[in-house]
Design a protein that fits this description.
glycosyltransferase, 11 strands, BirA Bifunctional Protein, domain 2, aa-tRNA-synth_II/BPL/LPL, 10 helices, HisRS-like_core, HisRS/HisZ, histidine biosynthesis, single chain
Length: 281
């Protein structure tokens, strides 16, 4: 039996002090984004193209429109923002820096609020990393900023002739069984010094991507950095250097470089609910 006052499991309810804290948090981050030249956009809750952003399509909440075309509730904002700006609004604006404050939805009834931004046609990931660091400092928190490069696990799996799933699923014990010296050392990389040490011993096809990761990590003005060259994330569109922010087993942010509509861009999403657990916990 469902009582009239119940809300679906996974949905969000804010009231009193928590609602005030959420609004204060969103306003603080939005002020920083506006100061850095970002303008606000709110995208539709419904989308025709969410399957292009989500690795596991079973997480999408789907239904059909009046023409029997499949529609999904928004599960990710990034690709929709780029499409709307470049395709639908392309004739009315040349602005390339946008932010949003809105929820995303996943099956069966999960709702998560995000504060995100997209920097369209911009390729220097250190700029968005430093913007993320600026926001974290303004919130007076110092979680782990983990920086990775999606090309490294892809190249490593080819070099070792193993399934990418071993890296995607983080099956460290199986990777150690390969008894490969450079792989063992790469698995242990966690900072700039250990990354510098391993570059000289890895196969040549990995060197350029590792050096790129090293260069960008050095350009970030933040003290609590962890480098994870073999990490393989779950979002489909990141295609180069990307990152996540973590504290107390909570992912606070995901961001990185991607290509959409043939355009190289970058951005991030802060997860409001997880941020509130840390700042108000």
């Amino acid at each position: 039996m469902i009582f009239e006052h119940e809300i679906p499991k996974g949905s969000r309810l804010y009231f009193g002090k928590l609602a005030k804290a959420k609004r204060r948090l969103e306003n603080s981050v939005c002020e920083i984004l506006e100061k850095n030249g970002f303008e606000e956009i709110l995208t539709p809750n419904f989308s025709y193209s969410q399957h292009q952003a989500i690795e596991n399509e079973r997480k999408l909440i789907k239904f059909s429109d009046e023409d029997n075309e499949q529609v999904s509730l928004r599960a990710d904002s990034t690709l929709d923002v780029v499409r709307i700006i470049t395709k639908r609004l392309g004739r009315t604006t040349n602005h390339r820096k946008w932010f949003y404050v809105q929820p995303v939805f996943s099956y069966p009834s999960k709702e998560d609020y995000q504060i995100g931004c997209e920097w369209i046609e911009h390729g220097d990931i250190s700029d968005i990393l430093n913007l993320t660091a600026e926001i974290l400092k303004a919130l007076k928190i110092e979680p782990i900023l983990q920086i990775s490069n999606i090309n490294i696990p892809k190249l490593a799996s080819t070099e070792l002739n193993i399934s990418i799933d071993l890296l995607k699923n983080g099956e460290i014990s199986e990777l150690i069984k390969l008894d490969c010296d450079w792989l063992d050392k790469l698995l242990r990389v966690s900072n700039i010094k250990s990354l510098e040490d391993v570059i000289s011993i890895v196969p040549n096809n990995l060197k350029n991507e590792l050096e790129k990761l090293l260069k960008k990590a050095k350009e970030v003005n933040y003290s609590n950095i962890v480098i994870a060259p073999l990490y393989y994330g779950s979002l489909k569109y990141y295609n180069d250097i990307y990152y996540r922010v973590i504290q107390d087993n909570l992912v606070i942010c995901n961001g990185g470089m991607y290509e959409a509509e043939g355009i190289s861009s970058l951005g991030f999403a802060l997860y409001t609910d997880n941020l509130l657990k840390i700042t108000e916990g």
